[in-house]
Write a structure and sequence with these properties.
single chain; alpha+beta; Phosphatase 2c, domain 1; 8 helices
């Protein structure tokens, strides 16, 4: 069956006194729950410059983790995860209507990954990312919802100009400002030995895919790798909060699909 080793780390960095990043997870308590619900990991980055980034990120993570745990057994993850992100968006948006937060602005990015059998579903809004490291090579799974990434996509600027642009942190999507949000969702088939990395921009703005893959490929436990990633990013820059979750796939349970439902393949 699916067997996962998990570690996480977060650091406020060298400049900011508070940490507006948040992270959460759901780890099944039994083999039965691993098959009925699966695993969930999520990272959020409260938008700096607004009033309550840490409230937004913490709220989003809390909603996603709690509702994932309460979801009906066997729910298809590819439809569940973006729905939970929409619920998290509504919760952050509604906070601004509360008396204690009235007049305040808040927003957060989110990247979430749900795993069951041999499948991973990644859903995100904003520029928090997911990477897949396989056989020592890193691959970015998510695409940033930023102004410069959209400009690069349509050919207005080059990849080299993205890192130098003064607009590189301008988000086109985030949780909170609007009542409805569209999450981008990707499905992956996992292999034994794969590692998934969820992180905020404090990490990926400081490190390349090759840097991330080199650290992840070390023979260390997942929590040590998460600490190594964050420490290296802070050492290089440290100008932002930095968070990483490391999910190492130790074994998978291969399944087939029939009418949208998984079934175990004969061994």
């Amino acid at each position: 069956m699916l067997d996962v080793q998990f570690g996480q780390a977060s650091d406020s960095g060298k400049v900011r006194s508070n940490n507006e990043d948040a992270m959460g997870s759901f780890i099944p308590a039994s083999r039965h729950q691993a098959r009925s619900h699966g695993y969930l990991f999520a990272v959020a980055d409260g938008v700096g410059g607004l009033d309550l980034g840490e409230v937004a990120s913490t709220t989003a993570i809390s909603v996603i983790v709690e509702e994932f745990a309460e979801a009906q057994a066997g729910t298809m993850l590819i439809s569940l995860l973006p729905r939970l992100i929409q619920h998290a968006n509504a919760a952050v948006h509604d906070l601004t209507l509360n008396a204690e937060y009235r007049g305040k602005r808040m927003a957060t990015t989110i990247v979430a990954c749900a795993l069951r059998y041999d499948q991973a579903i990644v859903s995100h809004v904003g520029d928090s990312r997911c990477y897949l490291v396989r056989n020592g090579c890193g691959k970015q799974i998510t695409q940033d919802h930023t102004l410069v990434n959209e400009q690069m996509r349509i050919g207005l600027i080059s990849a080299g100009e993205v890192a130098l642009s003064e607009s590189r942190h301008v988000l086109l999507r985030s949780l909170g400002p609007e009542l409805f949000i569209s999450a981008e969702t990707t499905a992956l088939t996992l292999q034994t030995g794969d590692t998934l990395v969820l992180c905020t921009d404090g990490l990926h703005n400081s490190m390349s895919e090759a840097d991330i893959a080199a650290i992840i490929s070390q023979n260390k436990k997942a929590d040590e790798l998460a600490n190594d990633l964050v420490a290296h990013a802070v050492d290089i820059d440290g100008g932002d909060n930095t968070t990483a979750q490391v999910i190492r796939i130790r074994s998978v349970e291969q399944v087939g699909m029939y009418r949208g439902r998984p079934y175990r393949l004969p061994s």
